[in-house]
Amino acid sequence: MQLRFSPSMRSITISSTNGFLDLMKIKVAARYISYRTFFHFILFAAIFLPFFFIPAAMVTLERINANKCSSLDCLTGRRWGPGFLGGADDSARLVRELYKVLDQVNLEEIPDGDGMKAPESFNELLLDMKNNQYDAKTFAIRLKSTIENMDREIRKSRLAEQMHKHFAASAIPKGIHCLSLRLTDEYSSNAHARKQLTPPELLPLLSNNSHHHFIVATDNILAASVVVNSVLKSSSKPDKIVFHVITDRKTYAGMHSWFALHSVSPAVIEVKGIHQFDWLTRENVPVLEAIESHKGGVNLSDTPRFLASKLQARSPKYISILNHLRIYLPELFPNLNKVVFLDDDVVIQRDLSPLWDIDLGGKVNGAVETCKGEDGWVMSKHFKTYFNFSHPLIAKNLDPSECAWAYGMNIFDLAAWRKLASETPIIVG
């Protein structure tokens, strides 16, 4: 048998050796990859493969030497990053471990006696970490200490803000203080400032129930003047108005001087100090002792809203006996049947004469409710907002869900009040 290859290597001829020519031609497929292409592939692999294998080998050897992983782990890429052989992400594992440490530290109390001052800012925390090379748990403790320190500083700032607002709102402006001092001096040196405010012939009007009686209790001279004059200017019957201004001992002289020097005619006015009411004694007015012993504290755990309420409760305006006189109106004015009590921070813009035509139906007080309205802060007041219902007497006689009312302007039926008090006396304990 003989084999013959064509020069182009595209066919092979096979002949037998027995004399018979038995030709068989086999065609070979054409070459699709040239030697030049194969050479280019080898050259490309020789150039770029080292850039992959050399770093991989270095990382593997480094981790094996550092005992961070076994050779099998490193070769299979179990601990390599996502860029090498599909391994897991070290950053995700680190975050999970950090979460675990933070949860552990969150349940622990930070020791006070470790002698380490908490960083006061984020920059200080970073500098502290770079200088000391803390482990994960110490880092978490330092981080927690820093955050708690910042939280305390924020609460202190909020407390200071509320305190400053409180003092700014409750302090007496210099001008008003000087006005009171000058009027007090005028009272002692000027006979006209000491004159009787109600002429003798008009004294019966102070207890005449056919007139409209307004009561204002304040130690602010200018505010009292605004209330009185706004009532007069808005009234259609100023000649039927009688004002009863009540103030404290230190302001009495200045208040008397002001209205002596500034007539409110045709209305009638009287100014009385609380020291001139013989009935106002500790035996008759237990609230006096409660006011004198009033103590209230603030702390950093209070919310700004609750803190503002506590500061408001500590204001001299609210712990003054003048703010509580409305409780004793039937005793202070035994000859009057109906009065309108006005706060010193109101300005009357309409005629209030129709108030005396309202039939209260045997009720004691007429006022505007403060539990219904769009303003969730102002119009959300109920009895539970003001009364301590842990006291058994209060819990027995009052309903905590009962709607409260605005006390800037109240109309009181003193006759009905006295009748109700005689039938169901209230025991203050």
Q: Strand pairing plus helix content: what structural class? A: alpha/beta
Low-confidence stretches: 19-30, 66-88
Q: What is the count of β-strands?
A: 9
The proportion of residues in beta strands is 5-15%
Return the string of H and E elements: EEEHHHHHHEHEHEHHHHEEHHEH
Q: What is the residue-mean pLDDT, rounded to a whole number?
A: 77
* Assembly context of the chains: single chain
Silhouette: elongated
Gyration radius over CA: 47 Å
Strand arrangement within the widest β-sheet reads 6-5-4-7-9-8
How far apart the termini lie comes to 135 Å
Counting DSSP H or I runs of 4 or more residues, the number of helices is 15
Helicity range: 40-55%
In this structure, how is the largest beta sheet organized?
A: 6 strands, mixed
Descriptive report:
The protein is an alpha/beta fold. The protein is 44% helix and 10% strand. It has helices at residues 35-65, 71-76, 90-106, 122-132, 136-170, 174-189, 221-234, 249-261, 286-292, 304-313, 316-319, 329-332, 383-386, 392-397, 414-423, and strands spanning 2-5, 11-15, 24-27, 212-217, 241-247, 268-273, 338-342, 365-366, 409-413. A hairpin with a 5-residue loop joins strand 1 (2-5) and strand 2. The longest helix has 35 residues, at 136-170. The termini are far apart. Residues 19-30 and 66-88 have low confidence and may be disordered.
